Amino acid sequence: MAAVDLPLADLDDLGAAVLPIGNSVSVLYAEKAKQPPSVVNIETQQVTVSKYEGSRAADGLWEGAGRAEFTSGNTYEGLFQRGQIHGQGKCIWTDGLLFTGNFINNKISGTGVYEWPSGAKYEGDVSNGKRHGFGTMRFAGSDVVYTGQWQDSKRHGQGKMVYDKAENCFYEGEWQNNLKHGQGIMHYSSGNTYTGGWEADQKQGQGCMQWGKGEQYTGQWANGLQNGIGQHVWIQPAFPGASTSTNHAFFLRHNRYEGMFKDGQRHSYGALYYATGASYEGEWQHEQKHGQGVFTFEDGTVFDGIFAQDQAVLKEGQAWGPVGLGVKLRVHELLEDGDNKQALLTALSNELLCVNTELRVVYDAYSGRQGQRPWAWGQPEHSAALTSAQLWLLLRECNVPEPDCSLAYINMALAQACSPPQQVTRLRSELASPQLAEAVGGGVPPLHTPICQLLFWDFCEALVRIAHLKFRHLPSLQQRLHQLLHALILPHAIKSNKSNLWLQQQSDADVQALSASTAALQPLFLHIAQLEPNSSSTAPAESISAGNNSDHDSAPSTSTQGIHQANSSGSQVAEHDRNDQERQLSWTSTSISLRRVLQTLQNRGLLGAGVSTQQALQAFQDACYAGCQADEAGRAGAADSLADILNLDSTMIFPEFVEGLARCCALEARQGEQDSWVSQLNVMVSKL
Asked: Average of pLDDT values for 647-668?
């Protein structure tokens, strides 16, 4: 664990202390108009002022510009009013301290500049002689500069302390009584940064420390060290010269630990995820695996036992490491009851093993890509694992999604593939609190989240489950997997750096505009979800033909009729009931049907005059199933286009819904001969 950088020693004011000038001249002249000025003048002059040169009022009180020498040796030169120092002036103390600025009734108040003989300098707000308000302090003998809020001559409130001339080392955030306290960012000269909570100059509460480009910790702090629940990520190469293009099995970037820390060390309960795909979850003691733990190897093999000083304690006859070759799959429920399940699992593992190298290339390539836009915003910054958004991109570029195998149903398969082994689930329930179990991955992620992470063996199991979903017409699970790998994934994955998907080809500016509109589109999506009879169905709908008519021209009328027939039932839902239900939903947890989307767009007048219902239907089909064709095994019969296997009840998730709307806007823009579809999107959003 890298040591925590400390900034330069904090410097405070050097030179003479700030003395309120009001204390020495408060009786310079009494403001009693009826008292004889001569009496007051003589008495006051003997006590505080040894010499005055300047203008006077008619009654003898000092008024206007003047210069006073005090019996203490201090001097003042500036403006007077009714016998008091008032206005702009300059005061010099005997030890060399100089103040130039504003005075009010014998007190330093307003704005001004303090200059110490040591070279220190303050410029800003003052009150009763103290730095108070906003100001800049330059410290003597160094490049240290503080700019920010002050209270009673102490740094207090928001402010920035720069420790070097190049401004490579600085703290910006909250202060209290000259100490870093509250929320703030510390940049160290080494390039390390800390962002988070502070208390009495120590890191405290929630915070994130990043050591250059090599390591990062995010979590709880106490007394300046990692204490409590947190995540530590290693993102440096395992050997000199390694780069992000190196195969992930040799490049140990993005190893990460999630769990408990004590005084800067892994301690108590936590999970360590290796970039190779292996993981350990269990008890820790002073940075070492120690106690009960479960080690999952890269192929899915699980060791459940005792660890001591970072080593597994093996029982007699117990082996350490993968048993056999291939990936260990947990797909027993997909196999027929009468089958030899172990033999079938071995056959599936061998099928994957035959293309292991190719699959690793695919996995590494897509785990390094941006992910399906604009959903890359949710991609974890420091993880080598493939995310669901990146897998969506892979599947769409390989023409996998179709009405009976939509992303909504694929995500159900992903959820099963990413579930932890039973041994890990048991250990969490026994040793980890609910909050800790959530931190190490025990929480159930939303079904359609773009940031679910898949290790390599999760990815392999996901392919098996997707193959089962897509090629159900084939007699065996092994044949389905073979078809997915050799007909779709391997022939089409990473053929070029440029995606063939419409949204991926749009300009960055247009995609950013679309991303900015997603918040406004979420309520519409959730409203449509509430119109569904069952928005959380768990089984794919059966494909239906577009009217069972060989004449393709009849398909649009059949589709539109189905849309209009649904109008009356949807309008009967009480508005307040829908609002209550919408508040309980999230776009990452639900999906909607194509039928309800088109119905709602029609009812709300969101489709432009230049876009017909049939064109909108095609736009959403392309958003969900671009590139999908009837497979060579004849599952779609004589169909030669997607329209022939139309399913108005096929489901889509929020990213597909947004892309469909964008495609409709692009159609409208082309009809109106406009330059960009973004302006049309803005018009649609304004109607919401």
From this structure: 86
